[in-house]
């Protein structure tokens, strides 16, 4: 066993034994860099630290080059993710992000004043389980409907994160900022009917995706789905077959 591998295992072991504090429980690390866009487009956004700002709205493609702990759940290569921190910029070169549960984002908690929290995270898990489409991930080309749906999905996620919890999901509306001050959220330039339809369907009875957040102080945080075990197994078998082929 090489020194580099031994150090990596030691770091992962330390990370996984860290206590869960009030702000976050670190599950691992992942080295990623922004590598382009999947399905989506641009929209005008208010809230989350923005004021009438044109921003990428849809899938962010991240290039993964390494990881420890839960960061090893993804194979090296491209990962489709969504932004969950509008006040920070994406990084075009690899940085080591912390891997946490969605409720333990954002990092830092300065803007929200607290973590996203379990209740909001459960809504994000449900909206992902109901509406996320793997066909949005990649370099395209994408249909107009796929781009529109991915934009609406991103806006719905931001509505959940940046607005106060409503008495009912029917009160969420991506066209209306329901809060005073820098918090709250609204958007124009996307299909708000689709976004609101997604939000209004959330009743706690839908499927919930297994999600993780990638967090880094000073850079945009992301959320993405953990690959299904079958997917991981197939990737592993493909790698094994490749190795065996090279030995022949």
Structure notes:
This protein has one domain. 30% of the residues lie in helices and 27% in strands. The protein is built from five helices and seven strands, in the order H-E-E-E-E-H-H-E-H-E-E-H. The chain has a six-stranded antiparallel β-barrel. Helix 3 (144-162) crosses helix 4. The radius of gyration is 18 Å and the shape is globular. The protein starts with a helix and ends with a helix. Mean pLDDT is 87; it is low at 1-23 and 230-248.
What string, H for helix and E for strand, traces the elements in order?
HEEEEHHEHEEH
Total count of strands: 7
Tally of helical segments: 5
Shape verdict: globular
Low-confidence stretches: 1-23, 230-248
Could you give the order of strands across the largest sheet? 1-2-3-7-6-4
Question: What oligomeric state do the depicted chains represent?
Answer: single chain
Return the structural class: alpha+beta
How many domains? The number is 1
Q: For the CA atoms, what is the radius of gyration?
A: 18 Å
Portion in strands: 25-35%
Helix content: 25-40%
CA distance, first residue to last residue: 24 Å
Mean pLDDT over the residues: 87
Largest sheet geometry: 6 strands, antiparallel, barrel
């Amino acid at each position: 066993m090489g020194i580099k591998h031994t150090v990596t295992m030691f770091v992962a072991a330390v990370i996984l034994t860290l206590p869960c504090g009030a702000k976050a429980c670190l599950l691992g690390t992942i080295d990623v860099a922004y590598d382009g866009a999947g399905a989506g487009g641009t929209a005008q956004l208010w809230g989350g630290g923005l004021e009438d700002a044109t921003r990428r709205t849809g899938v962010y493609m991240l290039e993964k080059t390494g990881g420890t702990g839960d960061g090893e759940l993804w194979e090296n290569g491209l990962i489709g993710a969504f932004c969950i921190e509008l006040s920070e910029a994406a990084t075009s070169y690899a940085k080591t992000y912390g891997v946490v549960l969605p409720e333990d984002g954002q990092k830092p908690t300065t803007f929200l004043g607290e973590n996203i929290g379990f209740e909001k995270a459960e809504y994000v898990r449900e909206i992902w389980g109901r509406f996320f489409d793997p066909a949005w991930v990649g370099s395209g080309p994408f249909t107009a409907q796929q781009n529109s749906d991915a934009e609406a999905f991103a806006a719905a996620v931001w509505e959940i994160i940046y607005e106060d919890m409503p008495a009912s999901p029917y009160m969420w509306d991506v066209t209306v900022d329901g809060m005073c001050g820098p918090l709250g959220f609204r958007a124009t330039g996307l299909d708000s009917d689709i976004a609101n339809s997604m939000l209004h369907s959330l009743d706690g009875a839908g499927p919930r995706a297994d999600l993780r957040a990638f967090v880094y102080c000073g850079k945009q945080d992301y959320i993405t789905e953990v690959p299904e075990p079958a997917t991981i197994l197939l990737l592993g078998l493909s790698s094994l077959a490749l190795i065996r082929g090279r030995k022949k």
